[in-house]
Amino acid sequence: LTIAFVPTADWTKRVLQERDFDLAMTDGTWGPDPDNLSVRFGSKGANQFMGYTSAEFDAALAEGARRTTMTERTQAYWRAQEILARDLPLAPLAEFVQVIAVRESVIGLPQLEARGLVTFNDYSLVRIKR
Fold first, then answer.
1. Could you tell me the pTM of the whole model?
2. Using one digit for the tens of pLDDT, what is the confidence trace for 12-32?
3. Which one has a higher pLDDT value, 62 or 20?
4. Rounded to whole angstroms, what are the CA distances from 58 to 4, 6, 36, 65, 72?
5. Integer CA distances (angstroms), 77 to 14, 27, 40, 87, in order
6. What is the three-state SS of the chain?
7. How far apart are CA 58 and CA 44, in angstroms?
8. What are phi and psi of 101, to 5 degrees?
């Protein structure tokens, strides 16, 4: 195994555009809306470098995007996740672990109270309580 560390621009070109890799590592925070699954796993997803194509998965995503109630969207996106679990187009090799040390007066952190509302690096909801 030869590990090649490449600048982001080179990684994007080699992996996303040219698909010149045997194994690629990437992170995966796509925000709280499950429709963002289309970016990584949809057949035409901008960051879908696996070559994964599933009409069934794309249909589940399209169904979720069309729906307006939380219940209907939940059903569609659960179906999309079931398809991914069955097809396994991506194999997670590592999990991001983060330790948060913060004063009690700081609230709204994306890793704590705002989890699921914003991505892990979005601090727009952080406040200092008085």
1. 0.70
2. 898 888 888 888 877 766 667
3. 62
4. 33, 31, 12, 11, 16
5. 30, 21, 14, 15
6. CCCCCCCHHHHHHHHHHCCCCCCCCCCCCCCCCHHHHHHHHCCCCCCCCCCCCCHHHHHHHHHHHHCCCHHHHHHHHHHHHHHHHHHCCCCCCCCCCCCCCCCCCEECCCCCCCECCECCCCCCCCEECC
7. 9
8. -115, 115
